[in-house]
Structures are given as C-alpha cells and as structure tokens.
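User: Please fill in residues for this 273-position structure.
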C-alpha cells in the first residue's frame, strides 16, 4: 500500500520543480529513490534552463535535489530495459548520452551562473552535473564518485567535466578506482568550492547566489562566456580574445554606470545593457 501511494505521489510530482525569488531561480530534482538522470528528468532540466535564458528576472540559478541524495547518475534500469530492442539498445543508449552531453553543455553555455547545491551522494552523471556547474557548495556529509568502472561501464562522459575541473591525476584516480571521496576531498581537489555543515547548506548557497545576483547581469553573461572560451585557447590567443572582450565590456552602459558609481561612492543601478 505504501509503495502504491509513493508511486502515485511521484506520478503527480514534477521531476524538476522551480521556485524563484530575488533574481534567484532554484531548480530541484526529484526522481526517487536515486534521483537518476532519466530521459524525462534530463529533458525537464534542460527545458527549465532554456526558459531561464530568456527570463530577465533570473540572474542566478541553483540546482539542488529534493531527495536524500543529489543524483546517482543515469537511470540504469531504464537503459537496461532497452537491451531487448532489436538493436540491443544502441539507439536508446545514443539518445541518452547525446541528451546528457547537450544538458551539460547547456549548463556551461548558459548566460547565467549556475550553482550546484549538493547534499548527499553525487555519482557518475550526477557528479558530472556538479562538475559542469559554475560553482558548487556541498554539505559535509556529501560524497562523490565516478564508479562506472566497477560495473564495466567507464565514466567517459563524466570524465569530460571532471577532467576540466580537477587535476588529471585526481580525475584519473576517481575514474580508475571508482572509489567514493568525501566532501572535504572534493573541495581539496577543486570539484566543489565550499563545504559547510548540512544544516547551513541552503543558507550558504543562498548567500552566495545573492552576492552574485547583485552584480550586473550583462557583466555576468560576458564574463562567464569569456571564461569558458579562453580556457580552450592557447595563451596568446586567450589574451587577444579577452582584450577584445574587455573593450566591448568597457563600452557597455553597465560598465559606465558601475565605474561612475565607484568614483561617486554610490550604489550602481544596473540596466543589463
């Protein structure tokens, strides 16, 4: 009876719920018990991110979980169910991996900063989502892993985000052993920015988001895009590119307002232009 009630509740509960206040959009994942990144959940999260692109009221996005863990990664039961297909699941596997890659890039390429609020376990594609976010704050009970190697499925796509956030040897150790690391280790290797007590997690993330939301939305967009673009360039090319970006930024009305406000010792009034 309890399982039936739980199934009905999940059927009417959105996979990704959203709340918005003070320029901060919070997207909460809810796909119990493992909060798996099923096709439906990934499509829902990507859709929410796409809508936020054009919403001028959103300045910062928080991705969190409504469940007991952040996310255990892909829905292996969903994927296994397609092994009986005529192609042994190839088409479904391709759809899953391409959608996941598109979702992660939607986070990275999003014009607004995205913060992961992690409480509990984040493994495989769940760890990939944390690594793909611009910032991540974890509770002190959180743990992380790329455990695919333990079940014969190397975490190759999570490797892309992981290897762009932590040093190669740390990434390789996680990928080759499949072992779990604690929140403190995740912070030490650069997978998350901060570790805070579980009871203060939501407040800490909110404070960080509010600090960022107080900045010019245009400047945040310019800066985030430039950060990821220059990271893929050689040194000389990166300096040439960022010099051009700064010139265009300097010509923006918000830069004119911000510099003027600094000189006049008053709060700036951002227009997003």
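Assistant: Residues filled in for all 273 positions:
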């Amino acid at each position: 009876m309890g399982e039936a009630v739980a199934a009905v509740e999940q059927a009417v509960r959105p996979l990704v719920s959203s709340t918005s206040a003070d320029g901060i959009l919070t997207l909460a994942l809810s796909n119990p018990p493992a909060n798996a990144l099923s096709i439906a959940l990934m499509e829902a999260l990507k859709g929410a991110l796409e809508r936020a692109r054009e919403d001028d009221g959103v300045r910062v996005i928080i991705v969190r979980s409504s469940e007991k863990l952040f996310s255990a990664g892909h829905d292996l039961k969903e994927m296994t169910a397609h092994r009986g297909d005529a192609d042994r699941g190839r088409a479904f596997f391709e759809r899953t991996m391409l959608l996941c890659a598109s979702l992660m890039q939607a986070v990275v390429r999003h014009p607004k900063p995205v913060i992961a609020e992690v409480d509990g376990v984040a493994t495989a594609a769940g760890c990939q989502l944390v690594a793909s976010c611009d910032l991540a704050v974890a509770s002190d009970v959180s743990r992380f892993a790329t455990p695919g190697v333990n079940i014969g499925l190397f975490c190759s796509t999570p490797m892309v985000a992981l290897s762009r956030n932590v040093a190669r040897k740390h990434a390789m150790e996680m990928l080759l052993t499949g072992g779990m690391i604690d929140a403190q280790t995740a912070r030490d290797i650069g997978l998350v920015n901060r570790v805070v007590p579980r009871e203060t997690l939501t407040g800490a993330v909110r404070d960080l988001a509010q600090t960022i939301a107080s900045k010019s939305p245009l400047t945040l967009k310019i800066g985030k895009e430039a950060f990821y673009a220059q990271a893929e360039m050689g040194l000389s090319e990166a300096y040439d590119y960022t010099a051009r970006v700064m010139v265009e930024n300097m010509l923006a009305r918000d830069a004119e307002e911000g510099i003027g406000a600094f000189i006049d010792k008053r709060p700036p009034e951002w227009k997003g232009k």
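For context: Residues 185 and 191 are 9 Å apart (CA to CA).
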